[in-house]
UniProtKB/TrEMBL annotation:
Listed PANTHER family: DNA RECOMBINASE-RELATED (PTHR30461:SF23), DNA-INVERTASE FROM LAMBDOID PROPHAGE (PTHR30461)
Domain of life: Bacteria
Residue intervals of the Resolvase/invertase-type recombinase catalytic domain: 4-159
Keywords: Coiled coil
Pfam families recorded: Recombinase, Resolvase
Molecular functions per Gene Ontology: DNA binding; DNA strand exchange activity
Record protein name field: Recombinase family protein
InterPro entries per UniProt: DNA_bind_recomb_sf, DNA_bind_recombinase_dom, Resolv_N, Resolvase-like_N_sf, SSR_resolvase
Amino acid sequence: MSPRTAIYCRISDDREGRGLGVARQEEDCRRLAENLGWTVSQVYADNDISAFSGKERPDYKLMIDDIKSNRIDALICWHTDRLHRNVRELLDFLDVVNGRDKINPNNLFSIQTVKAGQIDLATSTGRAMAITFGAWAEQSSAHAAEKIRRKVEELVEAGEVHNGGPRPFGYTRIYQGEGPRRKIIRDEICEPEAEIIRECVKRALDGESLRSICKDLNARGITTSMGNPWTVQAMRGMLRSGRIAGLKEFHRKVVGPAKWPAIIEIEEHQQLRALLDRKGRKTGGDDANVRKYFLTGFVHCTCTPKKPKKMRVSKAHGKAKYSCQPRAEGGCGGRTILLAELEKFVEKWIVARANDPKVLAGIAQRQNNSGTKSKALIEAIEKGEKRLDFLQAQLANDDEDEEDLVEVVAAVRKVRVRLREDRNKLARITSATPMIGIDVKTLKDDWKGLGLDRQRAITSLYIKRILIHPTSIRGRFDPDRIEIEPR
């Protein structure tokens, strides 16, 4: 009587996506089944899935379930390495077959291969042979992975595009061949997407949060290269990456110029990286503490003159107001000022300052100085990074004396501290450019449409803090109690 026979086929890499590899395996397995006099009742096929990577193989899982449930009595595969290229998984498979055979001692499970012959799991010799085949298959896969990693490193060193990953936003990919695994030849700039990137870069450097930028792009129907809505994480990754500046990265570190064209200048990349690294996770996340009012953080109560206390937003009788902190937290717990009236007052003050030629000249001078300082800081950062690479190479040198290594470690720490300070300075400078693109003559009318992040950035440009003094006037807004400390 013919055993209930199944065929298992698998191929790791199907670049054309046509399934020809598994089809050829099935054809050879069916020929072997015919020679054995077995009737094939089930075919399991995992196409374009590696058995070494650890990824789930759907049909392999179905096959294991069918063996456990005693739905099949025999298995044919092209070679043992089509079944397993991982010894751990092979041992689990042997446990499944042994468990099945204990329940059916008169109908032991049979395994035949086209290239490696019969695998007799009922004997110790057969099991040893199966484990040996599995070990060599695992070694072969590991060796192949080493070669692939070395090839990736060569491509990184040469600044070339390497296969893998989604199409980067801002670029059009040129391929060789067809199918999902075709070879990438080069990346070219996709101008419509590149314009979006330049816009996002300018907005981020102007002080707008990533959350605000993402919200705007999603409202305009602009998606990522994968067709997904923009998230803060995706935006941060794109803006921080060296790719859009024509730089090659490896393990999140810029390693040199790339072969693809740049969308933004390297100086802009340095500014973005410093700005985003300084802000860390506080780049506009969707948490519950996102500010809702442009003056939050600027308003202080003078109940403690030497160290004015920040006032918080609260609501009473349907009206928002800034209130001093409770006495238990060091405040007076009683002083308040209506939020809407204070915003109108400060908005009017900012518009007047923005239209004052003397103030504008001062801002222009300050921004020119910022430009000079940013160039100097960028040069210092680049020199520091080169110095750090040199010192780290010395640490990796086994020939160095122990005393010398102690000095090198101290030098590494010193350079890292200086780099961190320079990046923080650069971030502060780059976030002080919120008036770029603003028409001061129409600022009064445009203010509401600027958005919260741009409003706060402009406020920060003109105002250091707002002090709220006591008042004897009750029942109406008293502008005389407001003291604005200009920046």
